[in-house]
Each structure stands twice: as C-alpha cells, then as structure tokens.
Amino acid sequence: MTQPPSPFENLKHLAEQDNPTNRAKDVGRVLEAIPALQHWLREVRQGAVVEMRAEGMSHAEVGKELGLSRARAQQIAEGRTTGKRADSRTKADPGSPS
Question: Does residue 77 sit in helix, strand or coil?
C-alpha cells in the first residue's frame, strides 16, 4: 500500500485493516466526509486570512506571506473558492467542478 499524504498519516490504519469489508466500509465513510472536511478547512483558512487582515496586513502582504497572489488572498478573505462568489457555487450544476 502507498502512504497517505503527510497531513493524513493518522488515517493509515484504515488501509491496514485485515478485513476487506470493514476496510471498504471505513474508507467509504471517510470518502463521504471529504466535502465536509474541505468546507471546514476553507473556513479555517478564511478565518486565518481575515485575522491577518485585521492585524493590519494588506491583501498583497497576506498573499506574499502565504505564497499566493494578492487577488487569491482577497478571494480567500471573501470566502470565494474560485473567481466566482462563493454563494454562486450552490446554484451551479452539481456535476460541474467548482
């Protein structure tokens, strides 16, 4: 088995289960939770960027600190995941990428 990406080493036990039924079920539950995890991680990152802005950093300074463009730092602060407003994602076709 391959190793999970570094932030997720604590999930390695899922791949090491002897029972394939339990392994498939447990991994399936984790896969189903990924959208909620992504949402939570975006909120945490947005909160950190907003906090950096509240401490007096400009979008350009935040972007430089995080290795992002000024525009991307601003998008994150505003809760946008792409060039579109975050609210428009819910109105998009569920099969389309966001």
Answer: helix
